[in-house]
């Protein structure tokens, strides 16, 4: 394959979540830069940038310009909610493998780039929940994160406490957990961000009870030492003022 073919194969592997092919296409000393990533390593790229199922988009490649081992690509993506964005990427190849990528986000509003990164972090948490992976669920939590939950205790602090609570909740299910977000809204500046959504979980508890529950969730982020970290978590459900009981059967 020529350089343009290799880059197209790279996009195909990314969009189809074919990590094995992507690993073959990237050089061992591959590096990646974007407005959000400063020359990160191959390992860090897969950790931070590899997509999960909840973040699926449709991509249309608009232009490909290749000269020798250098390739420029402009593409447009459409999310499931209809939102569109356009990026340009510059690839440098060596020995038939991709050595470095520079990403230039479309538009000139840095807050959009920050919101994109926060959206990816939230989607990573959704995928971790489905995988029952409590460690990954708290990867982007600040050490002193403050959490307000839908059950006792009323509040608790610290990433370790959040992880312990998450593990207890995951262990209360048998088999797979269904988890989805609806109406996710993300806003951000250069050093602070906020997300809110309606969250839905389905599954079977270890006591045989079938669960299908919606609740409201908000996350506050701060950029600490150059990394986005969740510093505030809030989950809640409405309640019936006449009965004083939580309204757990509500749906959007």
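Q: What amino acid sequence fits the structure above?
A:
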């Amino acid at each position: 394959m020529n350089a343009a073919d290799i880059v197209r194969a790279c996009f195909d592997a990314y969009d189809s979540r074919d990590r094995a092919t992507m690993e073959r296409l990237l050089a061992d000393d591959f590096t990646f830069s974007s407005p959000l990533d400063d020359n990160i390593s191959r390992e860090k790229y897969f950790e931070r940038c590899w997509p999960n199922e909840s973040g699926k988009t449709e991509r249309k490649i608009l232009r490909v310009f290749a000269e020798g081992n250098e390739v420029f690509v402009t593409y447009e993506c459409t999310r499931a909610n209809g939102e569109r964005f356009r990026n340009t990427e510059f690839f440098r190849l060596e020995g038939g493998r991709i050595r470095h990528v520079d990403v230039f986000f479309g538009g000139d509003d840095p807050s959009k780039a920050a919101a994109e990164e926060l959206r990816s972090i939230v989607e990573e948490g959704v995928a971790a929940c489905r995988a029952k992976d409590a460690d990954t669920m708290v990867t982007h939590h600040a050490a002193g994160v403050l959490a307000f939950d839908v059950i006792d205790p009323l509040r608790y602090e610290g990433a370790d406490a959040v992880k312990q609570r998450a593990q207890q909740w995951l262990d209360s299910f048998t088999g797979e957990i269904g988890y989805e977000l609806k109406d996710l809204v993300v806003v951000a500046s250069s050093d602070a961000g906020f997300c809110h959504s309606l969250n839905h979980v389905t599954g079977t508890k270890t006591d045989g009870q079938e669960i299908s529950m919606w609740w409201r969730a908000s996350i506050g982020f701060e950029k600490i030492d150059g990394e986005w970290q969740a510093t505030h978590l809030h989950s809640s459900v409405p309640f019936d003022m006449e009965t004083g009981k939580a309204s757990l059967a509500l749906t959007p």
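Q: And what stands out in the fold?
A: Residues 3-108 form a domain with the Nuclear Transport Factor 2; Chain: A, fold (CATH 3.10.450.50).
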